[in-house]
Amino acid sequence: MAEQEKNRISVEIFGHSYKIVGSESTGHMRLVASIVDDKMREMHVHNPSLDSSKIAVLTAVNTVHELLKLKEQVEKLEEEVKKLKG
């Protein structure tokens, strides 16, 4: 099977430029970068004294927390669907 074509784009996150390579559409990658930028800027508003590395780590921690909560919700919904199917 041929390797999936990679898309390459440049994005700006929290004032820094990054080159992103991935198999997703460039629109998807730009959306991800935009969300990360927004979350870092929001974290900076609440913690203006932190440097960008600490803001990045806190943003990652909060994002993983949100991911785990969403996974829990999906598991609960899957259980409900199983119960309804009987």
From TrEMBL:
<dbReference type="GO" id="GO:0005829">
    <property type="term" value="C:cytosol"/>
</dbReference>
<dbReference type="Pfam" id="PF05164">
    <property type="entry name" value="ZapA"/>
</dbReference>
<keyword id="KW-0132">Cell division</keyword>
<dbReference type="InterPro" id="IPR053712">
    <property type="entry name" value="Bac_CellDiv_Activator"/>
</dbReference>
<dbReference type="GO" id="GO:0032153">
    <property type="term" value="C:cell division site"/>
</dbReference>
<protein>
    <recommendedName>
        <fullName>Cell division protein ZapA</fullName>
    </recommendedName>
</protein>
<dbReference type="GO" id="GO:0030428">
    <property type="term" value="C:cell septum"/>
</dbReference>
<keyword id="KW-0131">Cell cycle</keyword>
<comment type="subunit">
    <text>Homodimer. Interacts with FtsZ.</text>
</comment>
<comment type="function">
    <text>Activator of cell division through the inhibition of FtsZ GTPase activity, therefore promoting FtsZ assembly into bundles of protofilaments necessary for the formation of the division Z ring. It is recruited early at mid-cell but it is not essential for cell division.</text>
</comment>
<comment type="similarity">
    <text>Belongs to the ZapA family. Type 2 subfamily.</text>
</comment>
<dbReference type="GO" id="GO:0005886">
    <property type="term" value="C:plasma membrane"/>
</dbReference>
<keyword id="KW-0963">Cytoplasm</keyword>
<dbReference type="GO" id="GO:0000917">
    <property type="term" value="P:division septum assembly"/>
</dbReference>
<keyword id="KW-0717">Septation</keyword>
<keyword id="KW-0175">Coiled coil</keyword>
<dbReference type="InterPro" id="IPR036192">
    <property type="entry name" value="Cell_div_ZapA-like_sf"/>
</dbReference>
<dbReference type="GO" id="GO:0043093">
    <property type="term" value="P:FtsZ-dependent cytokinesis"/>
</dbReference>
<dbReference type="GO" id="GO:0000921">
    <property type="term" value="P:septin ring assembly"/>
</dbReference>
<dbReference type="InterPro" id="IPR007838">
    <property type="entry name" value="Cell_div_ZapA-like"/>
</dbReference>
<dbReference type="InterPro" id="IPR023688">
    <property type="entry name" value="Cell_div_ZapA_firmicutes"/>
</dbReference>
